[in-house]
Specification:
By secondary structure, this protein is an alpha/beta fold. The protein is built from ten helices and 20 strands. A hairpin with a 4-residue loop joins β10 (217-226) and β11 (231-238).
Length: 432
């Protein structure tokens, strides 16, 4: 039996060209897509190891979407924010598929090509982004887009809902500035965080948000996420029904907001799964939840099968419902229970490990079910001073002296002060 390989800090044993710099997009030399690793096709059979000496290192820049600026969860169209809109005729714009809209918007915004005086339109045919100039062909090539002229509401018509909430809230005037200008919205249920000074006015505050935002229920986040099953610690302030259907990039997620987490901070990773080429692959999602990653893969790509594992019976019930809601019963196979009990060996082309804190404890199972040359998407929460060494060491140790070819490494979000949630894409080749 082979002993597990270990890697000392700075050692590259068993790891092909590991990235030495955290929190960066790793582009591929000679690729037109090197400026945005989210567009790299990591399912390609050609060598994709990062050459640190020549790879493009582009700092990950965090930017809020227009929706979040106005208190909406990213990807959820704003409600009732245009009042007697002023229309500008014939504005230059680009129309793009909803699944690609946020990635394109960020590229355009970096080049200052988005017309910020006008409101982005989300309609039945996709998303329309107003422009100040025509983008280069090379920028648009990776996307399914068309250049159009559209009538856009101007931003002068938009009223930030928090202004209306503060006007509607029946609380002392000196407390109104404490009302949060951002919240998480899932369908017609919203989750807010409140300053302790508002404790005596919870109901009045909730009623104001419900009235302005047309909500059925308002919940208060009182303790973040807790336990192995990642359950939210929530108090209901308004309404009785906390089950919502959340629409994001054309995918419907139905779940009980008071009992099941949904991380808005992971939207880019969910969008990346929607763009990941995986034709005819067998994929195992080891921590499927309600279908966070399984559904984008199944809806927008063509895998042979996605085995979605979920240990929480309540979450698995919603996973089954969401598979039906999104009409991917022929692609997604739910598995309720501990993913370590999933039968079989060396059958998966790709394994998704979208969990935090203790993800490394499940790496041995991932290596068991992964085919030779298969790809693992390994998530980890790691102190910044241990990046990138610790996640690479854990991958190499679990590979049993196999070759770990790092395809991509990126910070998803800040998890806590000094701690980052990162994802490593790696191809695992068994020892000969």
């Amino acid at each position: 039996m082979n002993e597990k390989a270990t890697v000392a800090p700075g050692d590259t044993t068993g790891v092909t060209n590991p990235p030495r710099m955290p929190f960066a997009y790793f582009g591929l030399p000679g690729s037109e897509m090197s400026a945005d690793a989210r567009l790299v096709d990591i399912s390609s059979t050609e060598t994709r190891a990062v050459n640190v000496a020549s790879a493009s290192l582009i700092p990950a820049v965090k930017s809020e979407t227009d929706y979040m600026t106005f208190g909406q969860a990213a990807g959820c169209p704003a409600r009732s924010v245009n009042i007697r809109p002023t229309i500008a005729n014939g504005v230059l714009a680009v129309r793009v598929k909803r699944s690609e809209a946020e990635a394109l918007r960020k590229r355009l915004a970096k080049l200052h090509l988005v017309d910020k005086t006008r409101t982005i339109i989300d309609d039945s045919d996709g998303v329309v982004i107003p422009l100040v100039a025509v983008p280069s062909a090379s920028l648009l090539t990776p996307f399914d887009v068309s250049i159009v002229e559209e009538d856009f509401p101007t931003r002068s018509c938009r009223i930030d809902p928090i202004v209306m909430v503060r006007q509607a809230a029946d609380i002392p005037d000196d407390l109104k500035p404490l009302l949060p200008g951002k919240w998480e919205r899932f369908g017609d249920v919203a989750v807010i965080r409140l300053d302790d000074k508002l404790d005596d006015y919870e109901r009045e505050v909730a009623q104001a948000y419900a009235r302005v935002l047309q909500l059925r229920s308002v919940l208060r986040d009182v303790g973040g996420i807790s336990g192995d099953m990642r359950q939210p610690v929530i108090r209901r302030l308004f309404g009785t029904d906390t089950v919502a259907t959340h629409l994001e990039t054309g995918i419907r997620y139905r779940f009980d907001v008071a009992k099941i987490m949904f991380s808005s901070g992971n939207i880019e990773e969910r969008q990346r799964m929607a763009e990941l080429k995986c034709d005819d692959e067998t994929i195992v999602d080891m921590f499927a939840g309600i279908g966070y990653f399984s559904l984008p893969l199944a809806v927008y790509q063509r895998p042979e099968k996605v085995i979605a594992c979920e240990i929480n019976p309540l979450a698995c019930g919603y996973l089954v419902e969401n598979i039906s809601l999104n009409e991917v019963q022929d692609k997604v196979q739910p598995f309720q229970g501990d993913n370590r009990d999933l039968p079989g060996e060396a059958f998966a082309d790709r394994v998704i490990m979208g969990y935090v804190k203790t993800t490394h404890e499940f790496l041995p199972k991932a290596m068991t079910i992964l085919k030779d040359g298969g790809i693992v998407h390994y998530h980890e929460t790691c102190p910044n001073e241990l990046l990138p060494d610790r996640p690479l060491q854990r991958l190499s140790s679990s590979a049993n002296e196999g070759r770990v070819e790092v395809l991509r490494m990126k910070e998803i979000k800040s998890y806590a002060p000094g701690v980052s949630h990162i994802v490593v894409d790696a191809r695992i080749t068994r020892p000969s």
